[in-house]
């Protein structure tokens, strides 16, 4: 009788352990407390807002003072790529965009994607939503933004270039559909694995990201 009881106890223990192993575990996503990569709308607005312009002062010369004219080359480049499809950009145009963008207000949101996919990861969705709210805020609405897709170093050049373009398109599509941002105000570009954020760990998740750059501000220029 005692041996039978021990056998029953052992069976129940095995059932209990098996049930515990089969229970789903909860994941921690961006937006949960403790995730330092989660960004807020205000943080994005501050990062992308253009620097305040210096007030015009009276000088010794006679006549009205005017602000410096926009860089003609930058304006020409921006106009040439606005409204273009991501895949239509040449490698030269991509590098020209990167050169201009480096001096513009920008933010790396570390928006990540599922492995080998253009699907926005669940843990990054709150950051994408914060981006949508920021780009439609009074401080940024009307600007032209570059949305640049990046991959990690896994895979070949052509594959990663295509993947980065699809990732940029994925963010643009979400912003246009969910926040009614004009498609022509979002210039999408892909850089594949050519601009890793963490070169020392080429396969790290942080390399699968999207960067956002404020290229031109039309709404706040006169403020």
Automatic annotation (TrEMBL):
* Keywords from the named record: Cell outer membrane, Membrane, Signal
Offer a single GO CC term for the protein. cell outer membrane
Give the location in the cell.
Cell outer membrane
Q: Which InterPro entries match?
A: Bact_OuterMem_StrucFunc, OMP_bac, OmpA-like, OMPA-like_CS, OmpA-like_sf
Which Pfam families does this one have?
OmpA
Q: Which residues form the signal peptide?
A: 1-30
Q: Per its UniProt record, what PROSITE patterns does this chain match?
A: OMPA_1, OMPA_2
The record places domain OmpA-like at: 100-218
**This protein is called what?**
OmpA-like domain-containing protein
């Amino acid at each position: 009788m005692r041996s039978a009881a021990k056998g029953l106890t052992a069976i129940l223990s095995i059932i209990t352990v098996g049930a515990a192993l089969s229970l789903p575990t909860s994941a921690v996503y961006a937006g949960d407390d403790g995730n330092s990569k989660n960004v807020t709308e205000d943080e994005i607005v501050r990062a992308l807002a253009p620097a305040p312009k210096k007030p015009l002062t009276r000088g010794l010369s006679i006549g009205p003072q005017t602000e410096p004219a926009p860089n003609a080359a930058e304006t020409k480049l921006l106009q040439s790529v606005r409204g273009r499809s991501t895949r239509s950009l040449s490698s030269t145009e991509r590098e020209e965009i990167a050169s201009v963008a480096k001096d513009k207000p920008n933010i790396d949101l570390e928006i990540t994607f599922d492995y080998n996919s253009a699907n926005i990861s669940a843990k990054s969705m709150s950051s994408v939503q914060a981006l949508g709210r920021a780009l439609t805020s009074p401080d940024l609405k009307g600007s032209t933004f570059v949305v640049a897709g990046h991959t990690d170093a896994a895979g070949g050049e052509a594959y990663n270039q295509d993947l980065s373009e699809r990732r940029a398109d994925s963010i643009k599509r979400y912003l246009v559909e969910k926040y009614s941002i004009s498609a022509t105000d979002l210039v999408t570009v892909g850089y594949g694995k050519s601009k890793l954020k963490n070169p020392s760990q080429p396969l790290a998740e942080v390399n699968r990201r999207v960067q956002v750059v404020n290229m031109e501000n039309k709404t706040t220029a006169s403020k």
